[in-house]
Amino acid sequence: MEWRIAGSLTSKRFRSGSARWQGFLFRIHPVENVDFSAIASALGGRPVRLSKLGGLANESYRVEVDVAGRIEKFAVKLYEGSDSKLKAERELTVFKLMPKYGLRAPSVVLADLEGRLAGKPVLAWRWVEGTAVEKALESARSRYAAARAMGAALSRLHSIRTGDLEPRLFAGKEGFWEEEVSSIRLFAKLHSPIEQAFSELAGKLGSLKSDRVALIHGDYNPGNIIVGDGGIYVMDFEGARLGDPMYDVAYACIFIAFKAGWKAAKEFVHEYCKLARVDPCGLNLKMAAAAAKLYLILSYRGMESILREKTGVLYPAVKFLFLKPFKQHLKTISLERSTGRRRERP
């Protein structure tokens, strides 16, 4: 099997490679079933170079296209699954709304929602030069500024009026936390060794309520935020929905604390709450809920199989360097809630 990454599309042989996905090194998937020539033609030229960017549910690529002798770079996202068109429409809708609320959005130049070009829905936008915020969080000199920038961007995202959203695209209701707790109970039943501890936690989470309903990202983490072209770009809205905006805050805290420590997480929360004019009351318990659900999902045997398939021979390194310590981080945040033990939190 041959694999394509950052290789000429006109050559006969391609070298194997790996790509980055939220800190993971992922094995490149064969793309012979996708006609990138047709996509490049729709972008105004012919394909010259292709790089796999990764993704679990969908596939994303950096595509360089020769447009009348000039090389132009694009991000191309292919949407998978029975709800692929819905996911593409959802992401496109949010991208269009973002500038209205003071958020930078990529310049979408191609939207094939019917999948005529690749047999699946496709969005393409001009490549955003920059780096993921997770890189800035790794540096002691920039981590606090990066955390505050994440808070500021999220406050603007949550200011998008629900009246600007099509109900058919954005599911959600006021019973947001009831559904989240039900999911935790369900996933806990699949893990008999730890079912009791997480079931006890779910009982304590039953008191969670949403103060308001807003558009939430659903996967707001440093790997989905790019610093580039003069500002912050929030990406990957395929899973956006209506829910408690503090879920995004809690979810992001988990990743920021893992990457840069709890002081950086505090900076993020403070900036968000200041700009959104909200009180972080109850955030710790919502963080426990978000951590518990993510831990149980990552512990699901089927997820391990997916990660093995994606990472290939790199899986042992990914498991040791990221997955194992991150899962311990999640477990600590969630289960210490049920024992009454607490560490410093925002």
What would you call the structural class?
alpha+beta
Sheet of most strands: 6 strands, antiparallel
String of helices and strands: EEEHEEEHEEEHHHHEEEEHHHHH
- Total strands: 13
Q: Counting H and I runs of at least 4 residues, what is the number of helices?
A: 11
Separation of termini? 49 Å
Portion in helices: 40-55%
Q: How large, in whole angstroms, is the Cα Rg? A: 20 Å
User: From the 3D coordinates, which CATH architecture of the largest domain would you assign?
Assistant: Alpha-Beta Complex
Would you give the CATH topology of the largest domain? Aminoglycoside 3'-phosphotransferase, Chain: A, domain 2
Q: Residue ranges: pLDDT <50 for 5 or more in a row?
A: 1-30
**CATH homology-level superfamily of the largest domain:** Aminoglycoside phosphotransferase (APH), C-terminal lobe
How large a portion of the residues is in β-strands, by DSSP E?
15-25%
Overall outline: globular
Mean pLDDT across all residues, rounded?
A: 85
**Widest sheet: strand order?**
1-4-5-6-8-7
* Total number of domains: 2
What is the CATH class name of the largest domain? Alpha Beta
Protein described:
The protein has 346 residues and is of the alpha+beta class. It has two domains: 15-127, Phosphorylase Kinase, domain 1 (2-Layer Sandwich), CATH 3.30.200.20; 131-339, Aminoglycoside phosphotransferase (APH), C-terminal lobe (Aminoglycoside 3'-phosphotransferase, Chain: A, domain 2, Alpha-Beta Complex). Helix content is 44%, strand content 18%. The protein has eleven helices and 13 strands. It is globular, with a radius of gyration of 20 Å. The chain starts with 6 loop residues before the first strand and ends in a 7-residue tail after the last helix.
